[in-house]
Amino acid sequence: MATGGSRTVRSFCRVCPSVCGILVEIEDERVVAVHGDRDNPFSGGYTCPKGRALPLIHHHPDRLERPMMRDGGRLAETSWEACLDDLGARLRDIIAEHGPAAVAINFGTGIGMDAAGYRTAEALHRAIGTPAKFSPLTIDGTAKVLVAELMGGSAGLTGRPDYENAELVILIGSNPVVSHGHTIGMPNPRGVFRDLAARAQLWVVDPRRTETARLATRHLAPRPGTDYAVLAFLVREILRDGADPDVAVQDLDLLASAVEPFTREHAAELADVDPTDLDDLLAAVRRAGHIAIDTGTGVTMSASANVTQWFSWALLILTGSMNTPGGEWFHPGFGYQLEMFELPIAPPEGKSRPGPRSRPETKAFMREWPCATLPDEIEAGNIRALLNLGGSLLTGFPATDTLRPALAKLEVLATTEILPNETTALSTHVLPTTGQLERPDVTLWDFMSPRISAQHTPAMVAPIGDRRSMWWVLAEIGARLGHDIADTTLTDEQMLATFNGGGRTSYDDMVATGWAQAERELPAAWMHRHVERLGGWRLAPQLLIDQLHGLRHTTGPVLVPRRQLRRVNAQLEYLGEQPEILLSPQDAAAAGIADNQKLVVRTEYGELTGIAKLDPSVRSGVVSVPHAHAGTNVNLLTSKDDLDPATGMTRYSGVPVSLHPA
Ligand SMILES: Nc1nc2c(c(=O)[nH]1)N[C@H]1C(S)=C(S)[C@@H](COP(=O)(O)OP(=O)(O)OC[C@H]3O[C@@H](n4cnc5c(=O)[nH]c(N)nc54)[C@H](O)[C@@H]3O)O[C@H]1N2
Ligand SMILES: Nc1nc2c(c(=O)[nH]1)N[C@H]1C(S)=C(S)[C@@H](COP(=O)(O)OP(=O)(O)OC[C@H]3O[C@@H](n4cnc5c(=O)[nH]c(N)nc54)[C@H](O)[C@@H]3O)O[C@H]1N2
Ligand code: SF4
Ligand SMILES: [Mo]
């Protein structure tokens, strides 16, 4: 890392998985600006307001600079040595008395883009050997992974639209113009959708006429949680056309009987849409032949998540759109390279494991416990310590009012963070780790990148205050528990180099060039081989048939989630996005609520007060509340008990609400 003077350094943004290339302007040790890097082959100079806010994040006046430890009732600054020794001793005692399962680990979003930190966290987790692992998986979406496993035999299949060649893209419950994609990064979403809509069909299915829907050729606004009915209708009609997907499939007859009730009239009634819109969508699917579908949190957070994802895959398979130009392509990974080995094939019923002891009705999913079970596990005395790595627990997890007193009972709540928040205020140990401009890094989630690619960045500036690298902190904790996790005398670059797993390029080459990319093969031979070994796509997994039959609908107003442009979850709150509650003028009039007036939103589980924004782009029966605001905290309205029975995903969309003037 060069230091001193004025310089512009090439890097890539790790605020979100779009990983845009950036140029960072530095004067002495002050980061003064971030611009898009036009030479970056993946983002071509694009940045969004969040990436451009990196200097503000780095120089935030409240930033955490020194380790803190609770002394009596108060958090007080201390040295790393004292903080880690105390933490290590407490964890050792807890493990000695109650076993490793009493120590939980949360892999929060804040460490999701710290490659060395994340991998060291995985190593620490393995070394401690605790089953109590939490991550955003069960508060963001499990449906995509579950359906990939049940229908495609592997959770590792991450499909995404082939935007370059698609003739019809259907986006369901995702608003990439704001979010830049769900589980898939997308720099310059406006550009992508403008190009697409100029030459092809883009249908957006969302109860709100979103920023993305405004660029679409058509917008369909079904009642939340009923998207599956629209898809079931399409599947039914495509089957009646005599679908010939040209690939092997299993259980076609079971799928046909599952979708048989979804006639045009039935689907239109359930979804509360005009039947002629369904005719138009069906005609568009027939005309396009191969189609592409992408789903987002509007799908994965609803009670019908798995069933909706199932029918979207069924439609893709039946139209021959999987692994096909203009349809879906599957990311082979850059580091892992799925084409190099045979993916293990999961059994058709999925892999079910027991959930935590205090919640025997729940299951572990992908070896993780549902986030919603954390308060009960603490109250039961099963979890006594929590290593919270970059998680804003009190805004991200459900049922804030239940979680808060539970967290306060923990013997240890150790949080790695860059900025203080409600969760650090409750913590027993606060561990300030390096922010993204202070550490070298490589792309961690290359499966989420829009290309088969990886990038490297050096550190831009030296760490502020006493901040240390996450990997170093975790390795030091491990050492105090008797585990040799990493050599803590290594530099960050040396540590990153030890992870050099990808055979596509060497770490040294990545350092030299800044990025590396592999050709995309479409259709991909590895996918063909995989589907052959699977014995054909599984069209009708029993678990999903059972869930379809169990779906129930309410007709009253419901809560839906929403992202905001100038923040990421709980982060960047200082860019000023307000927690506006969007509702249709009709619903507002019925409840006696005026624009910009305070309202109370109430569910069976709790209530919150916020500012109403009357918005004709929202369909009636829908209340859109942005998440992760500490004040107007939407998780006051959610439940620790309203979970997907198969995966433990919390229900964040479609929760029945009532509206009242404040
Ligand atoms: N009701 C409701 N609840 C939701 C959602 C919803 O839509 N509705 N959305 C859900 C979703 S999709 C998700 S992903 C979760 C997100 O919930 P979390 O996983 O808790 O993620 P964030 O709110 O982004 O908080 C990340 C924290 O990491 C810190 N951080 C940032 N960079 C770094 C770093 O480099 N190192 C360290 N150590 N820390 C860092 C930030 O300051 C921030 O406090 O919330 C979920 N909760
Ligand atoms: N600017 C910004 N970008 C972000 C984030 C952020 O907070 N801010 N968060 C990041 C994270 S952690 C994630 S997980 C991704 C999420 O990325 P997305 O899934 O694209 O999230 P949203 O932009 O909230 O879009 C979800 C849409 O679903 C709609 N919806 C709600 N319920 C239903 C339903 O039942 N059916 C249908 N069809 N639609 C429904 C909502 O109205 C909303 O427009 O975004 C990431 N990117
Ligand atoms: S889209 Fe994501 S990666 Fe790109 S600048 Fe914005 S926050 Fe950074
Ligand atoms: Mo997320």
TrEMBL record:
Residues 6-62 form the 4Fe-4S Mo/W bis-MGD-type domain. One of its GO terms (molecular function) is oxidoreductase activity. It comes from the Bacteria. The keyword Metal-binding applies. The keyword Lipid biosynthesis does not apply. Keywords: Iron, Iron-sulfur, Metal-binding. InterPro entries: Asp_de-COase-like_dom_sf, MoPterin_dinucl-bd_dom, Mopterin_OxRdtase, Mopterin_OxRdtase_4Fe-4S_dom, Prok_Mopterin_Oxidored. Pfam families: Molybdop_Fe4S4, Molybdopterin, Molydop_binding. Belongs to the prokaryotic molybdopterin-containing oxidoreductase family. PANTHER family: OXIDOREDUCTASE YYAE-RELATED, TRIMETHYLAMINE-N-OXIDE REDUCTASE. This is Molybdopterin oxidoreductase. It comes from Mycolicibacterium aromaticivorans JS19b1 = JCM 16368.
